[in-house]
C-alpha cells in the first residue's frame, strides 16, 4: 500500500505491526547507501537485521543487499544493530575499509 509517496507496512497474519521508527531508520540507511555507492534509483536495496552466527561477531548484524545494480550488487554486512549503524559505517564500506564498519566486522560479499 502506498500513501503520499510513502510505503506503509501492512503486518502479515501472525506477525506484529512494524514500528514506524524502524521503517524510518531503514529508509535512512538505504539513503546513505545510495549516496555512498551512487546506486541507481531503480536498484532494489534490502536492509535487515539478522542474528550473527560467526565466531567473535556481535549477536546482531545489519545486512544490506543490493539487487539490480551492476556497480555494487551484493551483500554488505555491518556488525551493528540498525540503531547503531552510522553514516561512517556505510562510508567505510564504500571506501573498502574492511576493518572500519562494525569494529572490524564490516564486509562485502558479492
State which percent range the strand residues make up.
Answer: 25-35%
Rg for CA atoms: 14 Å
The number of domains: 1
Number of helices: 2
Q: Structural class of the helix and strand makeup?
A: alpha+beta
Contiguous low-pLDDT stretches (5 residues minimum) are 1-5, 99-106
Strand order of the largest sheet: 3-4-5-6
Explain what this protein looks like in three dimensions.
The protein has helices at residues 20-37, 87-95; strands at 2-3, 6-7, 44-51, 60-67, 74-78, 107-109. The longest helix is centred in the first third of the chain and has 18 residues, at 20-37. α1 (20-37) runs parallel beside α2 (87-95). The chain has one domain (19-109). With 110 residues, it is α+β, with helices and mostly antiparallel strands. Helices cover 25% and strands 25% of the residues. A hairpin with a 2-residue loop joins β1 (2-3) and β2 (6-7).
Write the layout of secondary structure elements.
Elements: E1 2-3, E2 6-7, H1 20-37, E3 44-51, E4 60-67, E5 74-78, H2 87-95, E6 107-109
Helix pairs in contact: 1-2
Give a brief outline of the structure.
By secondary structure, the chain is of the alpha+beta class. The chain has helices spanning 20-37, 87-95, and strands at residues 2-3, 6-7, 44-51, 60-67, 74-78, 107-109.
What are the defining features of this structure?
two-stranded antiparallel ribbon, single chain, globular, 110 residues, alpha+beta, 25% helix
Amino acid at each position: 500500500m502506498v500513501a503520499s509517496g510513502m510505503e506503509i507496512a501492512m503486518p502479515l497474519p501472525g506477525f506484529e505491526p512494524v514500528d514506524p521508527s524502524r521503517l524510518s531508520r531503514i529508509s535512512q540507511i538505504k539513503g546513505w547507501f545510495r549516496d555512498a555507492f551512487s546506486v541507481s534509483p531503480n536498484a532494489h536495496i534490502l536492509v535487515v537485521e539478522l542474528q550473527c552466527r560467526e565466531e567473535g561477531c556481535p549477536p546482531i548484524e545489519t545486512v544490506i543487499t543490493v539487487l539490480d545494480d551492476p556497480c555494487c550488487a551484493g551483500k554488505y554486512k555491518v556488525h551493528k544493530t540498525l540503531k547503531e549503524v552510522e553514516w561512517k559505517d556505510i562510508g567505510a564500506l564504500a571506501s573498502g575499509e574492511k576493518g572500519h564498519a562494525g569494529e572490524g566486522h564490516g564486509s562485502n560479499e558479492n
